């Protein structure tokens, strides 16, 4: 592998590969895209469901808003206070067809609650459903056929975030979610659009939502965490600024896992550039829970502006190494040494596995808050069972170079423009590629969306070989 001191112009590349589709297709779709300038880094906040279920009222939510400020959650970056299901009256609409809150539990109304949350410098999120009822099954609670009216109601109340669920709905998933996207845009109020569709339903999600749930509901146990990590990783290439895979809200602090497991859960959500929506009772949390949720060094991994979702780069049984490139110069990465097994074990990350030159690589442990030194070929740590050692590594000797298609040993704008022209079909071969289909990484003679996502990950250093090169 050719090596250079600096990896330049990765920003251009990121922009180019942000969608797995050729640019002509992107342009065609742009008119329909969700263009609300929100979620440029994954959203951070709190949601009522994991801890309270349907048992919510305005007093509780106001106390949560207070706690967001007094516990340091707001200071750590959490901003949305989100109601989940069961805020509506039963039946959910008034005689004119407008959604109304439960008059006993939310006697002051939603505008007043939004005002209170805004007065704390926080943002207000609400919950709806694309079908005829929400998942709590309250009559008239779904937005099907009421999309524009409900979006306008939410905007009038001062809603900043909509989680839009998938219960009691017809099979036309894409049309249903696009209707609410368009209705939200029509209100003119910037409202983060959180699609709750329970699986990666297709690349159209990138243009439809600011994030989309990739799995069924999370539960507070280790099996749920590992299942979700695996599922959420399948669509890693579709994540980026403004559009994220959502592996569901956090269970940190809800009591059924150990603090080691909660640290691993939180670390992996940050590695996957996931929305960080706390799901515990932040009015009463232990110091350990607070330290996990407010660890700014770990949160910075999630919030890195390049917005690349980290992925697994190597594994030996249940011992895994995950990497998330940070920034755009290729020299800095977050690394998670992830131990799924029932016993503590040593795990090693090799620099060559994460696209870094051997040489002088500085390692910092983000849970210990300490610099570990510099290491020449890799780093080994002992990782507890169901635990993660989370590192930030920076190479003084530079990144391994990918994409030197003209053979000049420089990655420059011309390389990227050649790759772009090739993918757009404007040239038929790279100078260095002997006329092969350069992006046909699975070797089936076709360039597909899957290929593009692999090319993107390869060029960003997230994976170090294509399937066809094994
Ligand atoms: C679905 C969603 C959950 C939660 C509940 C509420 O199951 O996936 O996150 O919103 O509905 O009923």
UniProtKB/TrEMBL annotation:
Matching InterPro entries: Aldolase_TIM (IPR013785), Dockerin_1_rpt (IPR002105), Dockerin_dom (IPR016134), Dockerin_dom_sf (IPR036439), EF_Hand_1_Ca_BS (IPR018247), GH (IPR017853), Glyco_hydro_27 (IPR002241), Glyco_hydro_27/36_CS (IPR000111)
Entry EC no(s): 3.2.1.22
Keyword annotations: Carbohydrate metabolism, Cellulose degradation, Disulfide bond, Glycoprotein, Glycosidase, Hydrolase, Polysaccharide degradation, Secreted, Signal
Organism: Ruminiclostridium herbifermentans
Enzyme class: hydrolase
Catalytic reaction annotation: Endohydrolysis of (1->4)-beta-D-glucosidic linkages in cellulose, lichenin and cereal beta-D-glucans; Hydrolysis of terminal, non-reducing alpha-D-galactose residues in alpha-D-galactosides, including galactose oligosaccharides, galactomannans and galactolipids
Secretion signal, residue range per the UniProt entry: 1-24
GO MF annotation: an example: cellulase activity
Record Pfam families: Dockerin_1 (PF00404), Melibiase_2 (PF16499), Melibiase_C (PF17801)
UniProt-listed PANTHER family: ALPHA-GALACTOSIDASE MEL1, ALPHA-GALACTOSIDASE/ALPHA-N-ACETYLGALACTOSAMINIDASE
Family listed: Belongs to the glycosyl hydrolase 27 family.
GO annotation, cellular component aspect: extracellular region
Location relative to the cell: Secreted
Keyword set includes Methyltransferase: no
UniProt protein name: Alpha-galactosidase
BP GO annotations: cellulose catabolic process
């Amino acid at each position: 592998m050719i090596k250079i001191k600096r990896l330049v112009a990765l920003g251009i590349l990121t922009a180019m590969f942000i969608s797995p589709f050729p640019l002509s297709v992107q342009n065609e779709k742009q008119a329909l895209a969700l263009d609300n300038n929100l979620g440029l880094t994954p959203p951070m906040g709190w949601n009522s469901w994991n801890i309270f279920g349907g048992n919510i009222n305005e007093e509780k939510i106001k106390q949560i808003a207070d706690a967001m400020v007094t516990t340091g959650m707001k200071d750590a970056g959490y901003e949305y206070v989100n109601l989940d299901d069961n805020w509506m009256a039963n039946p959910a609409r008034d005689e004119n067809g407008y959604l109304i809150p439960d008059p006993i539990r939310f006697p002051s109304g939603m505008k007043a609650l939004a005002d209170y949350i805004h007065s704390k410098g926080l943002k207000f999120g609400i919950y709806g459903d694309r079908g005829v009822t929400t998942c709590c099954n309250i009559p008239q609670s779904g937005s099907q056929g009421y999309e524009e009216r409900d979006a306008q109601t939410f905007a009038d109340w001062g809603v900043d975030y909509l989680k839009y669920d998938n219960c009691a709905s017809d099979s036309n998933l894409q049309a249903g979610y696009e209707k609410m996207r368009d209705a939200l845009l029509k209100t003119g109020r910037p409202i983060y659009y959180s699609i709750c569709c329970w699986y990666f339903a297709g690349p159209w999600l990138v243009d439809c939502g600011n994030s989309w749930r990739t799995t069924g509901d999370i539960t507070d146990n280790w099996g749920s965490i590992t299942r979700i990590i695996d599922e959420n990783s399948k669509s890693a290439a579709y994540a980026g600024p403004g559009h994220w895979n959502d592996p569901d809200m956090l269970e940190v602090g809800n009591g059924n896992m150990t603090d080691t497991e909660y640290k691993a859960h939180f670390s992996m959500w940050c590695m996957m550039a996931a929305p960080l929506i706390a799901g515990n009772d932040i009015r009463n949390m232990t110091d350990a829970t607070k330290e996990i949720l407010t660890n700014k060094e770990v949160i910075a991994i999630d919030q890195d502006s390049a917005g690349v979702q980290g992925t697994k780069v190597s594994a030996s049984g249940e011992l895994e190494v995950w990497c998330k490139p940070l920034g755009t110069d290729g020299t800095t990465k977050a690394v998670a040494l992830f131990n799924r097994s029932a016993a503590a074990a040593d795990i090693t990350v090799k620099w060559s596995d994460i696209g870094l030159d051997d040489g002088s690589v500085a390692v910092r442990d983000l849970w210990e808050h300490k610099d570990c030194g510099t290491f020449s070929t890799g780093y080994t740590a002992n990782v507890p069972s169901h635990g993660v050692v989370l590192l930030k590594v920076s190479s003084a000797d530079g990144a391994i170079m990918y994409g030197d298609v003209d053979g000049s040993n420089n990655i420059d704008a011309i390389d990227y423009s050649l790759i772009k022209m090739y993918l757009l079909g404007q040239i038929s071969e790279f100078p260095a590629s002997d006329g092969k289909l350069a992006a046909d990484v699975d070797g089936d003679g076709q360039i597909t969306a899957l290929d593009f996502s692999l090319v993107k990950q390869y060029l960003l250093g997230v994976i170090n070989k294509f399937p066809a090169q094994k």
